[in-house]
From TrEMBL:
InterPro entries membership: Glyas_Bleomycin-R_OHBP_Dase, Glyas_Fos-R_dOase_dom, VOC_core, Xdiol_ring_cleave_dOase_1/2
Family: Belongs to the extradiol ring-cleavage dioxygenase family.
Lineage summary: Bacteria, Bacillati, Actinomycetota, Actinomycetes, Pseudonocardiales
Pfam families (alphabetical): BphC_D1, Glyoxalase
Cofactor or coenzyme needed: Fe(2+)
Protein name: VOC family protein
Length: 299
């Protein structure tokens, strides 16, 4: 079965590009790749860009880019999508140039999220450099990170569609968060990263709840936590750890209202031995609402 190799880039439609540049570069530790009046590109590694932020009112996920290893692989995925009834359009030379890839096609998943499939994401001309990172972003074989998206439609339809891209279920988490109220999520992978795309049906007003970026040192999580606190960037969740992907992380609000999970120590999966798990907790510890801390400090 042909598979995409990684979630390689993410696109955001954002109303405040200056805020995004500050957030991405100064707080998250990314490198500015390119800035125009209406767009912003950010680097996380040797690649030309990993985040593409375009001006617009949505303040939400605009597209996700999945890489294929070869033209033949891309062709096979496109053929399989079309056979399953999906519309797939050639992106053309202008879009390929904007994305800094060799060839890109555009489609939409069953939820309506724009998905770009491509080959050949270019490297930047210079080595990656962050002004604030102690270590590096963990990308490589695991891609840019993971996205946690809102289901909105039948789960099986989503899993079948992403299955055509080569995604496999890693595990399921179903936690009773209040009597009779369940948080119910499914985590899927296309490489050694525990998951590149996760799904849950929850009351959240965006397409995307969070995008996780991983750093190579636990100190970088703490340093980013401090930078966000110093900048008074609103937090979504305090430090904590997930039992399924073992990510040590915190969640901070982006300028577009969804969240970044800033993590370290994520599990990698050995595809030859992994068996699908069912868990009943989203958090091993922590990841509390920041209001809990605020309430403790009330006089
Ligand atoms: Fe996550």
């Amino acid at each position: 079965m042909t598979s995409v190799t990684e979630l390689a880039y993410i696109g955001i439609e954002a109303s405040d590009l200056d805020a995004w540049q500050h957030f991405g570069v100064d707080l998250m530790g990314m490198q500015l790749a390119e800035r125009t009046e209406d767009s912003l590109a950010l680097r996380m590694d040797a690649k030309a860009h990993r985040w593409i932020v375009v001006r617009g009112d949505a303040d939400d996920l605009a597209f996700t880019g999945f890489e294929c290893a070869t033209e033949a692989d891309l062709g096979a995925v496109v053929a399989n999508l079309r056979a399953a009834g999906a519309e797939v359009a050639e992106g053309g030379a202008d879009l390929a140039a904007a994305r800094k890839v060799e060839r890109v096609v555009v489609t939409a998943d069953p939820v309506g999220n724009r998905v770009e499939l491509f080959v050949g994401l270019a490297d930047a001309d210079t080595p990656f450099q962050s002004d604030v990172l102690f270590s590096n972003f963990v990308t490589g074989a695991g891609g840019a990170g993971h996205e946690f998206l809102m289901e909105r439609v039948d789960r099986q339809e989503i899993l079948d569609w992403y299955g055509i891209l080569g995604f496999k279920v890693t595990d399921y988490v179903k936690e009773e968060v209040a009597p009779g109220v369940f948080a119910d999520a499914v985590f899927t992978r296309c490489n050694e990263r525990h998951h590149s795309v996760a799904w849950a049906d929850m009351p959240f007003p965006k397409r995307i709840h969070h995008f996780m970026i991983e750093v190579g040192s636990i100190n970088d999580v703490g340093l980013a936590y401090d930078r966000c606190m110093d900048a008074k960037q609103p937090f979504e969740m305090t430090l904590g750890m997930h039992p399924n992907d073992e990510m040590f992380s915190f969640y901070v609000r982006t300028p577009s209202g969804f969240n970044i999970e800033y993590g370290w120590g994520g599990l990698t999966i050995d595809d030859s031995t992994w068996q699908i798990k069912h868990l009943d907790k989203l958090d091993t510890w922590g990841h509390r609402a920041p209001q809990v801390v605020a309430d403790l400090l009330k006089p």
